[in-house]
Amino acid sequence: MVSVRSYSARLPQQGRMEHIFMTGSPQFDTLDAQTREAVEFIVISCLDVCYAQTDWYRNLGAKEAEYLRIILLTAVTDYVEYTRTHALDKTHHEHISADNLFNLAPLETTFEITLENVIDAIRIVVDIIEDHIELFAPAGQEAAYVRAAMYFSREAAFSAARIYGRVAATRSIWDTRDEAFIIESLLNQDYSPSLQSRIANFKWQPAERFFGVVGNFDTSNSLHSSFIQADFRNAILKLGGQACITSHDSYTILLVGMGEESSRQPFLEVMAELFEKIPAVCYGPVRSRLEGASASLRAAVNGFTARFAYPDHPNPMRAEDLLAERALFGDVDAQDELYDKVYAPMKKEEHKTQILSTLKNYLFTGFSLEKTARALNVHPNTIRYRLKKSVQLTGWDATDSHEAYVLLTAIKIGLHKDALALMHQ
């Protein structure tokens, strides 16, 4: 057995000899030491041939070359696992999936390493395996292991072709850098001409209606994550909308342009099955024009990050249901909405309904009907009646624990803003 430490491989671009110590799939780590050494020998030999015989490998950057090493290491490891079970079974015709080959390399790898490059490398690997089949095949079974290598490589190539085809479809007319710029600009409320020019590709109307969606997609495998994003795009396209998607920190953000639809409900219904695959999702309110798109995105992002303060939140979440939590963590939009849409209407109608004073006493005295009734010198049934009327006025129910928290937060914000206004006067 040749030791991996006794030979080297040429790195592209630099053209120098360097020792390579492989990292790869978890399956590689489960192989015995002798088999791991054989796998490494095959891969490094393949890279040496690629360097000597192909221009594309020599033109790869160091990062892309490392990804190719990982892909090949995973492929040879999968071949070893396959032969242990199926090498001697001539009737076995299992479809080989190449998904595993790309699990440890980001989706962007497919920009620099083409399908033709991958197939070229697989062909070289098969040739080297055939020349060194004794590294894997027991004595007398060499022909079966060569035949398994041919079958495995063909199936892996077909599967890789399907993956590259799907990746090409997910890119379509969208450019990931433009999408990232659009989302970032809207989150920062930057409506510069640069934003306008990039948005033109989406053919959104001037009064387009939008809503934002934020979720913690599984980004441990960027190929899988991209396919989930593609499923979202296709679901939205079927309803006449378009989606702008980008990854941001540890989560993914979607801006949905709704086309002719006036409600987000049809979009949420077709995306419901996809939401089930994602641990946490928050969607913002429907708003018009770019300013509205910005507001909906900010609401979705802030709601998503504030969800930890609402342990029993539903999934998917509405950003409107997390107004109090968002306001608590400094979301000015949420604070303004609680004041304008919850506190202000109660204040305006106070002289007619006494709903604000009733809710204030009820919420500040521990949700006690009797204490509230005594404080206001009315019957407890009057308090019950006013609590029911408050739902119609504010949209929030004080007898529900979470909605009561929203009302309490709105009243505190209102009292604080009113006090500041008086001080400034």
Strand content: 5-15%
Structural class: alpha+beta
Main beta sheet, described? Answer: 6 strands, mixed
Multimeric status of the protein: single chain
Helix content: 55-70%
Count helical runs.
20
Head-to-tail CA distance between termini:
89 Å
**Rg from alpha-carbon coordinates:** 30 Å
Mean pLDDT: 84
H-E order = EEHHHHHHHHHHEHEEHEEHEHHHHHHH
Looking at this protein, list some descriptive labels.
425 residues; alpha+beta; six-stranded mixed beta sheet; two-stranded antiparallel sheet; 20 helices; 8 strands; disordered N terminus
What does this structure look like?
- By secondary structure, the chain is α+β, with helices and mostly antiparallel strands.
- Helix content is 61%, strand content 8%.
- It contains 20 helices and 8 strands.
- The termini are far apart.
List the helices and strands and how they pair.
Layout: E1 9-10, E2 17-18, H1 26-30, H2 33-53, H3 55-58, H4 62-86, H5 99-102, H6 109-112, H7 115-131, H8 142-171, H9 176-187, H10 193-199, E3 209-215, H11 222-238, E4 242-248, E5 251-257, H12 265-275, E6 281-283, E7 287-288, H13 289-306, E8 317-318, H14 323-328, H15 332-348, H16 350-353, H17 355-364, H18 369-376, H19 380-394, H20 401-424
Parallel strand pairs: 6-8
Antiparallel strand pairs: 1-2, 3-5, 3-6, 3-7, 4-5
Concise synopsis of the structure shown:
This protein has 425 residues and is an alpha+beta fold. Helices cover 61% and strands 8% of the residues.
